[in-house]
Structures are given as C-alpha cells and as structure tokens.
Design goal:
This protein folds into two domains: 228 residues, Alpha/Beta hydrolase fold, catalytic domain (Rossmann fold, 3-Layer(aba) Sandwich), CATH 3.40.50; 72 residues, no CATH class. The chain is built from ten helices and eight strands. It has an eight-stranded mixed sheet, sandwiched between helices. It is globular and about 50 Å long.
C-alpha cells in the first residue's frame, strides 16, 4: 500500500512539520479517566468510544501511545482516535506522566522504556472486560510499544491481538545523535523547550534529588537524557539508558502480528538505524518503509475527510485476518 505525499510537501522536513503545525482535528470528544499507579502517582486516560449504531457488543479496543512531549491531543493521536472510533473501535489515548496537562506527583517522569505504565493501562482495560485489544505507538510511544511486546513475548495476555507503530526510534542512541545535526535542531529545540520547564517544576518539588542548575549544560537531547532522564530513572547515563530501552533489543521476542512503519526520509529516525534483519527474522513482524512520509507525517496527496494515510493503513492492518 504505497504512500504518495502532496507535491507541495517535497521532503521529510516539510512532511513532518506541516501536520504538526497546521492539521486541525474536529469532532473528537474525549472522556478522561484518571487511574492510580502503584507508586502513588496517576495516569490520565482519554477515551473515545465507537459510535452506538455500530456497537453490537463491547467492540475491540486500541490503546494509543504518543511521542516525546506529545499527548492525547497531538494531531496524530486525535486523527487516529477519530478515524478508528468511527470505524468501530473503542480508543484509549493515554498520556505519559507529566503529559496530560498536569505535572505528575512523583520524582520520576516518563521515558522511552517505561513499560510498567503501559502495562498498567493494558491491565486496566482488561478489567473493563475488553476481549480484543491492540496497541499502537507513535515515535517514542512506538519504541515503548515494541519493547513492551518483546519483554512479554509469548507470555503476553491472549486478549492482545495486534500492534502498529509509526516512526519508532528502535535505536535510541542513533536517533538522539541524529537530532544534533544542524538540519534537525528545530526538532530537538522544540522538545527541549517543553522539557526545561518540567525539570524546573520537578527541581522545585524535589530539590535534594534534582539540580536544575545542571540544565545550563544541556545543549542537546543527549545531554538532557544523560543529566536528567537517566539518573532520574535509575540508569547510569544516556548510553546505559539507550542500550536498556531501545526496542531493537526486544523485537526478536514479539509474538503477535505487528506492523512497523518508518519512512525512508524520516529526519529524526535514520533509516539505517532500523534493525531490518532482526525484524525480518521474526515472522510476526511486518516492516514497511515508504520512501516518503517524514516523522509521524503521512499526509496523503489526495485528502478525503482529513484522513491521513497512516490512519487508513492502520485500519487495514488491524482489520485483516
């Protein structure tokens, strides 16, 4: 299923930036539910239920995980929620700690390998009685999804049906270093712009554990991960964090049908960083690499009802037998 971009989005940068800045999604009404975590924190889950006229019994559920400094309100989350709920899925778009509009309570944030929180969301959905659950992740959320599936392997709950990830950084270090390139600093600076005030709030709440002054040494995302993400979450440094949480080390054990889509012109996730041989060695994995698409972009050349190629492709995969 080929992807064709508009002629006026000629490269990966345009294809990545345009949807983020200009795509508007109307008609999504989330119902927010807050659940408690075992460490006395909370996660905010935003639900969109299938239309009543196509709901015969409890429909299948799709759990969406957003990207770095995203949320359930990111355009790719809203677009997928609207499209799949209209097509008959219940959708749970969950927010990572600190990403739902309110700072989380504990010392820790979120990170690329925090599968304990995703597992909590899955367990909560199981308690609601869903009999078919699929997972979907975008960018960081894609890495998180793949790591979660690989960690559990054949021990995964049988209700878990399929998974789809878009623009996932399977090699975290390679992607972190890619953002240092001059042409990619626009993305890195955007992430750091929202991460900085979060660190300030955390440092004010936990002054004995977080030194905000260390932020003066943050020039790159690698620096941020080395000085904050890693020590806050128990890693020895950025390299240890990347090595421990990169999903490329877990894809071998994934045991449900999983579609991995990374555009060749993704400016944030270099195509050479994708472990294609390891993916191809697992018959449960299906890898697609369109030449165009950017990072979580995929705006089609011909737009119908504001539906993006990624949304249509996900529906086809999830619906197939």
């Amino acid at each position: 299923m080929d992807y064709l971009p508009p002629y006026w989005l000629p490269n990966g940068h345009f294809q990545s930036i345009y949807p983020s800045l200009f795509r508007k999604i109307k008609g999504v009404t989330y119902h927010r539910e807050r659940i408690k975590t075992p460490d006395s924190d909370f996660l905010d889950l935003d639900w969109t239920l299938a239309q009543p006229e196509i709901e015969i019994s409890r429909p299948p559920l799709i759990i969406l995980s957003h990207g770095l400094e995203g949320s359930s309100s990111s355009q790719y989350m809203l677009g997928m929620s609207k499209y799949l709920s209209t097509a008959g899925w219940d959708v749970c778009a969950w927010n990572f700690r600190s990403c739902g509009g309110e700072m989380n309570s504990t010392y820790r944030f979120y990170h690329s390998g925090a599968t304990d929180d995703l597992d909590l969301v899955v367990e909560h959905a199981l308690q609601k009685g869903y009999r078919q659950i699929s997972l979907m992740g975008f960018s960081l959320g894609g890495n998180l999804t793949l790591k979660y599936l690989g960690e559990r392997g054949k021990r995964l709950h049988p209700v878990l049906h399929k998974a789809v990830v878009f623009s996932a950084p399977l090699d975290l270090k390679a992607c972190s270093l890619a953002m240092i390139a001059p042409q990619n600093r626009i993305y890195m600076n955007r992430f750091l712009k929202t991460l900085k005030p979060k660190v300030f709030i955390k440092a004010s709440r936990f002054p004995d554990q977080i030194d905000f002054g260390a932020y003066n040494h943050v020039k790159t995302l690698y620096d941020f991960d080395h000085l904050f993400t890693a020590p806050i979450h128990g890693f020895e440094g950025a390299d240890h964090y990347y090595a421990s949480c990169s999903s490329m080390h877990f894809v071998d054990e994934i045991a449900i049908p999983t579609l991995i889509i990374n555009a060749k012109n993704d400016p944030i996730v270099p195509i050479h960083s994708i472990p294609i041989k390891r993916i191809e060695a697992n018959t449960c994995l299906f890898f697609e690499s369109p030449s165009q698409g950017g990072h979580c972009g995929f705006r089609p050349a011909t737009l119908h009802n504001n539906v993006y190629w990624s949304e249509y492709r996900a529906k086809v995969f999830l619906s197939s037998t």
